[in-house]
Amino acid sequence: MDFNLDEDQLAVAELARTILDDRATTDRVRAVEATPSRVDDDLWHELGKAGLLGLALPEADGGAGLGLAALAVVLEEQGRHVAPVPLWSHAVAARAVAGHGDDALRAELLPGAADGSTRLTLALEEYDARPPARPTCRADRDGDGWRLSGVKAAVPSYAGADHVLVSATGPDGPALFVLPREGAGTTWRASVTSSHDIAGELVLDGAAARFVGGTDALADTLRAAAVALAALQVGVAEGALRLAASYTSGREQFGRPLATFQSLQHQLADCWIDIDAMRVTLWQAVQAVDGDGSGIGLDRAVQVASWWRVQAGLDVVHRVQHVHGGIGVDVDYPVHRHFLWGRQLAGTLGSPASVLADLGARLAVEEVVS
Question: What is the rounded average pLDDT of the residues 36-45?
Answer without folding.
Answer: 97
